[in-house]
Amino acid sequence: MKLDLNIQPLNTWIKTGKEPLVIAGPCSAETEDQLVATAHLLANTGRVTALRAGIWKPRTRPGEFEGIGSIGLEWLKRAKAETGLPTTVEVATGKHVEEALKAGVDILWVGARSTVNPFTVQEIADALKGVDVPVMVKNPVNPDLSLWIGALERINNAGITKLAAIHRGFSSYEKTAFRNEPMWDIAIHLKTLAPNLPLICDPSHISGNRDLIGYISQKALDLDMQGLMIESHIDPSVAWTDAKQQVTPSALVDIIDRLTLRKPETRDAEVNDKLTELRNNIDKIDDLIIQKMAERMNIAEQIGNYKKDNNITILQINRWDEILNKRVNYGKALKLHPDFTEKLLELIHSESIRKQTEVMNKDVAGQAADKLHV
Ligand code: PEP
Ligand code: MN
Question: What is the atom index within ligand 1 of the atom nearest the CA of 57?
């Protein structure tokens, strides 16, 4: 099922000639000098299309720098007047929207901590009614695609058609190499549901550390995301917020220079023929996999009947361990990643159990199990 969003292409509201599209600027506007000087350096690189800066900062704990506030809008105006870069800020309330629009901010974005809250998103959407301004919606902090979609729908329902999504990763309790887990599948799922919705990656907030930004940016481009939002500060070492993940404008250029741009399609007939041939092979194998799955489930059903007749439990943990170990090792020998083989087998196994539950409890319990898909 596709989402019913009314969307205008990216090039109707931002210059898309430069590849890749880069929106850059400091995490926070700190002083007029810092913002304007950073903006000049970014504009001079010739690689940046729009200037970002947070002026109202959502901080996790009180007592930290909460943004310079409305005065920052004047600095953004000056930065834009002097560099020609369109500007973008985060808005989290109806008042922010009004002030930003009054100050001529070109693009607004909804932050991850706002996307989680439908009241906040609705307040922002209400303030946007009757206004023609582009809005970018970051994913919610938690890995919940529906919340992200809901926020996009609320903004779109307010009449905003210049809309984009920003993938900035998801919070997880477990600490990993990333500040926010990319969970690429969620962004890919959104792209599948809304193919026309521009998707921009924010590698800075995914990485939390400037060394990972290039890697994440490349991955985003390889997934055909349309742009990057990267935090850049004239002197990251003294940044008031997100110091570890900001890069100088010249480091930003290095990151961009190292990116390999690949096209989603090509007109080269030979390449296309080869791709078609390979895809046909994949299709054949996928058909075989589905056919084999159906055969396997058929056998699981027979086993279910047999266990029922002989009063044996569905799950025999030893048997399951044996299947898992043998196949994971076999997969390893065939160069399949053990995590992949394990996940795949778990999925197949849980469907087998569901089938057997169905067979063995053809009564109320069976129906409930079916509903719960266990
Ligand atoms: C930011 O862009 O500086 C920011 C606060 O991001 P996020 O909403 O993704 O945490
Ligand atoms: Mn930041």
Answer: 5
